[in-house]
Each structure stands twice: as C-alpha cells, then as structure tokens.
C-alpha cells in the first residue's frame, strides 16, 4: 500500500502545488488522480518516486518512508510511464525496454529476452524489436513505454497521462490493453489523467483534486458518479454522469426476445409465419451462422429471407455482448438502431435476442432498486433520477419508431 499522509508541496516563491493531501492507495489496484490543470496531480505522482521532493508530510510504501532508501533504488523499484512514451531515440525498441534490467545488472541476453516477452504481452509484433522509436506509430511507442516500465517487474507503476497524446481510437485500445495486463499482473498503479471518462473506465479508486492540490473526493467510480461530494465534483463529472454510471450495471439480467429473429435461408412462407406470430412489422435477419445482417421492413419481409439483399435491409447497428457489456452499451445500441431495438449477441457474434429501450429502462430501474436495497437508498435514488432524466427523452424520441417495430 502507498500511504500519502498530509503531504504538501510548496515552492520557494510560495506557490502551493499540493496542500495537506492524504490518500491510501491499495495494493494491486488502479488509483486515478484526476482534476483540472494546476490541481497537483502530476506533482503528487512525482513525489511518490521523489522526482519532486515534498515539503511537508510523508509518503509510506508498504509502511516504510520512501526517504528510508536511496532515491535511485526507489525509482528503479517503480515503473514510470509518461506522455509520448519518453523513449531513447538512439536505442532499438528491444534495448529501450531492457533499460532498467540492464541498470540492475542483468546480462544483455537475459534483459533482451525479458524485453521480447513483454513486447508480446503488450501486443507488439516481434518484428519491431530492432526498429527505432521514430519508426513506430504513437500507439506503438506508448506500448513500448508500458513494456519498459514493466521490465524489472516492479510492484508499483506510475503513469502520467500516458495516453493523452494519441487519437481516441488508439487510446481506447491502449486502455483496454492496460486493463488486460492489470488483470494478469495485479500491479499497484497510480494513473494521472485530466479525462474523467478515462478515470472512470480505468480506476478502481478515483481521487478528484481541486486547484491547489486539495482533495475533493476519493471514491470508487460508481460511488463518485452516484453521490458527488459537492458542487465542484458534480460540475467536474459533467451533466451526463447518470448515463456513464450505467457502465457499472451488467446486461446479464436484461430481458431479451427471439420472436422477431429469422435466418436468411427462410422461405417467404416462414417469414410470413414468423411475422404473424411475433406481431412484428420488422424482423431481424441473420446469416446461416446466426450473425445479424439487418432488419427487414414490411415490404421486404414479404419476399422471404433468401430473396433479400443486404441493400434492402435496415442496419442493425452495433450489437452488444449479452452479459459482458453493460446497460450503457445496450442503451447506446438501441438509441442508434433505426428500429429502436438493440441486438444482443454472444462472444462469437451470434444473435441471442433483441431488446427495446423500454425494456432497458425497466432493467435500469430494477438495478437501482436492487442496489438501493443493498447500499445507500439516497445515493441510489439520486442516481436513478439522473439516469431516468437522461434515458426517458431517448425513449420518447424513438417511441413512434418503436411502436412500428417488434
């Protein structure tokens, strides 16, 4: 555990970057420091490995003051990842990753073997080992930075806005990669970001800091979204926090129906029978493997599945993986669907059912009721009100389309 105990950083000109900050960072978890510019999050991170020296308080690592060991030994015991990776441009990728093991006395072959193993772990092709940083994309360079930080197998990983310089698509991939690696390795990670969405996605615990390095709230993401401590935290979280909180509700219990689903090789008679039985002017057409192709309209349905071309189908939108993705994912799929219905698939992409925005809204209310019974009723009610306000307009807007659908 990392214990930050009443830590202050005051510069000679009187500027206070961090003010009496106290946090307990649990082992084997990701703790995110987030806040506006000037809130002291990077300064706090750098005080943990003594790149910046504190002027008050203390920082303990597993109960021992970080000043009890030489600063170089402390830094080598912690991985450190920064924005733009901070790689050595004159060294190959494999030698960049092997930097800290070599400093610790590992022989070249052992260090390079460790580096190649880590390249595979972070999703870098082995063919990149002898290239130089300038020959890699920004996302690849960030992966190298993460691999280098992990090279000596440190128990603590410090990450200072590591993904902020890459585009949103690459950032999403890198975030998923970090969560995958963390699930395997269980490091103690302190992660700095200015992006509240990134903080909520990655953090087991999130510390929201105010300007001047004062702690505003320290809580798990779900609690942060459902019960912000004050107006500052609420404003920082943004107006869509109710929708974002749906990420913590599983889709596993969501009610699905298979009535309007029919395979592409079905005859016109079979399509007519399914349309009549389901009462649905729209049917979801699947290929012979059960994967979604699109929704049929009333006129198209009369032809029979085999006679339809993909061009005649309404798009089914992005399906969600039932039981693995959240109610937020399910709602997003339904809102984006031209029929107002979301398509649920299994891990192999095969359709397991469809569900409406109304059904999703009922699942949200049920999830709140269940969580309210187990936890804080007031927090649950507050979140429910926020989410209902966000979800219900979407339902209202698609009501006309939905009434014509399944």
Task: Give a written overview of the molecule.
This protein has 406 residues and is an alpha/beta fold. It folds into two domains: 2-240, 3-Layer(aba) Sandwich (Rossmann fold); 241-406, CBS-domain, CATH 3.10.580.10. Helices cover 40% and strands 21% of the residues. The protein has helices at 41-48, 71-76, 93-97, 99-103, 108-121, 138-150, 168-185, 196-202, 221-226, 231-237, 241-245, 268-278, 298-301, 327-336, 357-374, 377-397, 399-404, and strands spanning 2-10, 16-25, 30-34, 56-61, 64-65, 78-82, 156-160, 188-193, 205-210, 214-219, 261-263, 283-286, 292-296, 320-321, 341-345, 351-356. A six-stranded mixed beta sheet has the order 6-7-8-3-9-10, sandwiched between helices. It is globular and about 80 Å long. Residues 375-406 have low confidence and may be disordered. Belongs to the ABC transporter superfamily. One of its GO terms (molecular function) is ATP binding. Its EC number is 7.6.2.9.
